[in-house]
Amino acid sequence: MANWAVTLCWVSFIFIMEVVDLGLDWEFYSEINSTEQNIHHKTELRKAILAFAIFGTITFFPGLFGHYFDWGDNNKHLTYSTVMSVICTWIEDFPQIILAVIIAVWSSELISNVQYAKAGYAICEALIQIALSYWQCCCRGNNDNDAENPRCLTFLLLLDVLGGFVILGCSIFLLVELKFDNYQVLFNNNTQTQFNNTQTQIV
Known about the structure:
Layout: H1 3-34, H2 42-58, H3 60-72, H4 79-106, H5 113-142, H6 150-202
Helix pairs in contact: 1-2, 1-3, 1-5, 2-4, 3-4, 4-5, 4-6, 5-6
């Protein structure tokens, strides 16, 4: 397959993933903004989620262009995509997953498909990021003579791998927390139902 075709396929894949990510970010903000559940520091959390959703929207096209330039250059440079990936990982994805964890811990009653989707998507994205960064490390090693500032690139790639593992751990914790909260809510509802039935029989 021609290099341009591979580049187009990869950028298209990244585009779809980033669109899904953006959609989940804004849907999560909409959910928190409209919920009537009592959440600690709801106003501050809502503003923080909005800020990171806007930041993700701003970095959307630069991230795509970074992948396009590097893949179009047969991954000899890697600077653009690596820098954008590190920025998005540590300044967008990591704070957002932490906010999602905080909300899940503080409000056991606020459980939705959006939160499950964010946790599942973050796990998949982290696994892809770890695998891609590892492959890029190997690719950078093969093109070491073409790379500018190879030590800096290696550091950024390792930082990206670390970010992937951190987000993976946080996402798994979020998923477990959501499942635990879901069981807790179901248990409380069943207990309340049994209590009401008992009270009705007594009356």
